[in-house]
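can u do me a favor
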């Protein structure tokens, strides 16, 4: 049996977290949805936060959402420049942290509509967002 690989120096993912990253590694974004009550559970867990059940289907979110919170992380140009960090409320009913890719990292505002996309990152993918009017 091979030893699980480390992700960026962190402990190896196991259980639902491992399934989540396996989908991302394969270029798919999927999240667990409780079979008992239909709640989408993010961050992936072994039990539903709503009803406590432990059986899930892995669904592909539509990708639409609304900015709940946003800020700019200031970085020097040699480190990639300023970057947007945000919390997005997805239409499926869960919230996730990510970034909004915009020309001006300060452009996104609370309440803006955004659209998710997968961005290749090394051997995996990251879920990032664009402003909905930029994605049209």
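np, heres the sequence
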């Amino acid at each position: 049996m091979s030893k699980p690989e480390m992700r960026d120096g962190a402990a190896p993912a196991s259980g639902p977290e491992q399934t989540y990253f396996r989908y991302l590694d394969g270029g798919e974004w999927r999240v667990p949805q409780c079979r008992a009550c239909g709640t989408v559970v993010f961050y992936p867990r072994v039990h539903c936060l709503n009803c406590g059940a432990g059986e899930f289907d892995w669904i592909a979110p539509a990708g639409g959402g609304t900015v709940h919170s946003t800020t700019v992380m200031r970085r020097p140009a040699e480190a990639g420049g300023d970057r947007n960090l945000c919390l997005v409320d997805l239409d499926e009913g869960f919230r996730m942290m990510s970034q909004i890719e915009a020309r001006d990292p300060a452009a996104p505002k609370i309440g803006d509509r955004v659209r998710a996309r997968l961005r290749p990152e090394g051997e995996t993918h990251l879920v990032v967002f664009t402003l909905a009017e930029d994605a049209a």
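The chain has a mean pLDDT of 90. hope that helps!!
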